[in-house]
Amino acid sequence: MTVPTGRRERKKAATRQKIADTALRLFLERGYDEVGIRDVAAEADVAVTTLFAHFASKEALVFDRDEDFEQGLVRAVTGRAPHEPLIPALRREIHAMVRHCTADGASPLWHMIDESSALRRYGESMRLRHAEALAAAIAADPELAQTETASATIARFVIDAYSLAREAADPEAAVDEIFRMIEAAWEATRPGVPA
């Protein structure tokens, strides 16, 4: 999460984190379907309107790092050094995301997500949105010179790499294996490469 600079921004960020932490604790203790928005707001000692000012839905409480992950993916494209190859920058970002999501203690969260159709649907829509944002960043970079189709395809591959690696027995090795394939696909789309 981006560190807020002003007092007001720090206070808002602290409230948001308190709500997210409270929601996750309650969901894991009682079960996702057994906890309502009002339960989370009461336990976090905030108004329901305050909760909704920070999170658009109950599902968003579970995926509280959603925006950070999306921004990280876009920054992997837009923030890389001049002439730095794209695929290694994206691989670093996916490695970081996978490490975060496979850290000790993450297993109960993923079990809860896998058990809930609402959370699985939300996760899928989130991944599609991330892929669209990543594709737009790739397509907008004049140095990369890719068609919208190629940009969207590579973005989907990258997002799928995260999902597949997170579930693999050796997530780090899976990221590297998948990115070798992504690199080959990327090279095949480069201008001047025979089809």
Description:
Helix content is 74%, strand content 0%. The protein is mainly alpha-helical.
Task: Sum up the structure in keywords.
globular, mainly alpha, single chain, 195 residues
List the helices and strands and how they pair.
Layout: H1 7-30, H2 37-44, H3 48-54, H4 58-62, H5 66-78, H6 86-101, H7 107-115, H8 117-140, H9 148-167, H10 171-189
**Helix segment count?**
10
Q: Kindly state the percentage of residues in helix.
A: over 70%
How far the N terminus sits from the C terminus, by CA atoms, comes to 41 Å
Counting helices, strands and paired strands, the structural category is mainly alpha
- Largest sheet, strands/sense/barrel: none
Concise account of the structure shown:
The protein has 195 residues and is mainly α. Helices cover 74% and strands 0% of the residues.
